Amino acid sequence: KNEVEQSPQNLTAQEGEFITINCSYSVGISALHWLQQHPGGGIVSLFMLSSGKKKHGRLIATINIQEKHSSLHITASHPRDSAVYICAVENTGNQFYFGTGTSLTVIP
Amino acid sequence: DAGVTQSPTHLIKTRGQQVTLRCSPKSGHDTVSWYQQALGQGPQFIFQYYEEEERQRGNFPDRFSGHQFPNYSSELNVNALLLGDSALYLCASSLVPGTDTFGSGTRLTVV
Question: Quick one: pLDDT at residue A48?
């Protein structure tokens, strides 16, 4: 069983739709990261969370420590949001566990 | 301020060869971690270097080895390459937990 589970694996949305990607984890963490990976592999860190909620532009990330669950929301989705979104958790030893990613395609 | 720099960006090797990948950490970072990301999979932790020593290691064979230099840059070496070693190799640097910055990766193809 993976330490980090993401859903859905693949997601296709129409431009403008509200999108939610979910992440559940089973290990004790010091932080949870949401990463964006574009074709070619380059990874961009979107959020680092240890509690509550963070917002950056059209992106919102929430975490519930008790339930070991996090969500990434994209409001008013746009084709340029098409990418793979990866949930990663970091334990107190600075070791990461990664989800397998959610491949998002936003259609104009 | 440059982030994490990896080289080369792409590499093709034949089975049985050896490869060295390089990573320069973000300025001020002293810890370097290496990850392997197979196609369609999430990254898998290979090992982490701190103060020029391997501090943690994931479930990878001894063919995977590394090194960290006094300037905190790092190398990942893979010996006796297998076709299954074809992947994107990511480097991340940090100073303290939660400051991790990822490089863009090296795409290794073994033929």
Answer: 86
State the burial class of residue A108 (Cβ atoms within 10 Å of its Cβ: 0-12, 13-18, 19+).
Answer: exposed
**Is A90 within 8 Å of chain B by CB?**
yes
Minimum distance, in Å, between the CA of residue A41 and any CA atom of chain B: 6
What pLDDT is attached to residue B79?
A: 97
DSSP assignment string, B1-60: ----EEE-SEEEE-TT--EEEEEEPPTT--EEEEEEE-TTS--EEEEEEETTEEEEE-S-
CA-based angle A105:B100:B78, to the nearest 5? 85
Given a cut of 60, is residue A20 above it in pLDDT? yes
A93·B56 Cβ contact <8 A: yes
Chain A residue nearest residue B93, CA to CA? A94
- Residue B90 or A90, more confident: B90
Tell me which chain A residues have a C-beta less than 8 angstroms from the C-beta of B102. 35, 43-45
User: By a Cβ cutoff of 8 Å, what residues of chain B touch chain A?
Assistant: 31, 33, 35, 37, 40-45, 48, 56, 88, 90, 92, 94, 96-98, 100-105, 107
Q: How confident is the model at residue B89 (pLDDT cuts 50, 70, 90)?
A: very high
pLDDT, tens digit (0-9, with 9 covering 90-100), for A35-84: 988 776 667 778 888 899 999 999 999 999 999 999 999 999 999 999 99
Does B43 sit within 8 Å of A86, measured CB to CB?
A: yes
